[in-house]
Design goal:
elongated, 171 residues
């Protein structure tokens, strides 16, 4: 029991740390967008790097925060049946849904690794005048999927414990 709690706490801590760290990058994205808007509409001098940088940062933030979002149960859910059943049945539904979740995330990890590793091996760049490296952005798909898988495992252990015992696993 203590091993499960320790594992869950470690996974929760990792995703909490990553999620809280990413919120500062959101400020960077906002600053870049603000700078680009002012440069474009006030000075009529748009940058080559502004919107592309903001888009890439936002994409990276989105995939890297998936584990944090799952930890806080903030993903979109259809509550037609889910909200009307007891907690133990919800946990059983979540255990069943985990089969689909793990399949999807494993495919995402595999594809993200393949996609990112190919980009790293070739030191892929965007291929325009500014020509920034794109491989750091592409590898975030793999990293974000790994964080999501870890958090999914922690949630699966919680849900399975609740479904079987009827008691929540305190983490």
């Amino acid at each position: 029991m203590n091993t499960r709690k320790g594992l869950i706490q470690a996974i929760d801590s990792i995703n909490e740390w990553v999620g809280k760290g990413l919120r500062y990058l959101i400020l960077l994205v906002l600053a870049i967008i603000f700078f680009e808007v002012v440069a474009r509409y006030v000075f009529n001098r748009p940058t080559l790097w502004g919107m592309l940088s903001a888009t890439w940062l936002w994409g990276g933030l989105s995939v890297l925060s998936a584990g944090y979002v799952l930890k806080n149960r903030a993903h979109v859910r259809m509550d037609i049946v889910y909200s009307r059943v007891p907690n133990r049945w919800r946990a059983a539904l979540d255990v069943f849904n985990s089969l689909f979740f793990f399949f999807f995330v494993c495919v995402l990890i595999w594809a993200g690794w393949k996609y990112g590793w190919r980009s790293i091996k070739t030191l892929e760049h965007y291929g325009e005048v500014w020509n920034p490296p794109i491989y750091p952005v592409k590898i975030t798909i793999f990293l974000g999927a790994c964080l999501l898988l870890l958090q999914g495992l922690a949630q699966f252990i919680r849900d399975l414990t609740l479904a079987i015992t009827g008691k929540e696993l305190d983490s």
